[in-house]
Amino acid sequence: MKEQLKIRFKKFALSIIQLCDLLPKRNATFIISNQIIRSSTSMGANYRSALRGRSTAEFLSKLGIVEEESDETLYWLELISDSGLANQEQIDPLWKECNELLAIVVSTINTTRKNQKTSK
Fold it and tell me: 40 near 73, Cβ under 8 Å?
């Protein structure tokens, strides 16, 4: 499961990069593209870092960053959609995948916290 998620995060970031390459070249688009590429690539980087965590606290901390970056990526996708910079057919699969990844991360955080409480 961990390896599959690492692959999903990487594929998702690559899909965001591909979307950004298709956006019209304007000043506002450059800023949005920069931000969404940063947040989407950070999702996978911090997930990988979480897997290398030396403690449960470190693991949860890194997953918290993944959660934040996922939510930020959804925000930038909303802006791209609402501004008409890309069509909905381009955005919908990315929106769906980001929400699925976010749900997995939140579930993992909640399960880890629950297991941490019951082991004490």
Answer: yes
DSSP string, 53-105: -SSHHHHHHHHHHHHHHHHHHHHHHHHHHHTTSS-HHHHHHHHHHHHHHHHHH
Helix, coil or strand: residue 40: helix
Q: Are the C-beta atoms of 97 and 7 separated by less than 8 Å? A: no
Residue 108: CA count within 13 A, CB half-sphere: 21
pTM: 0.94
Tokens of 4: 């599959």
What does the CA dihedral 79, 85, 89, 93 come to, rounded to 10 degrees?
Answer: -40
Question: Domain 2-118 adopts which CATH fold?
Answer: de novo design (two linked rop proteins) (1.20.1440)
Residue 94 structure tokens: 């990315």
pLDDT tens digits, one per residue of 65-116: 999 999 999 999 999 999 999 999 999 999 999 999 999 999 999 999 999 8
Query: Do the beta carbons of residue 12 and residue 40 sit within 8 Å?
Result: yes
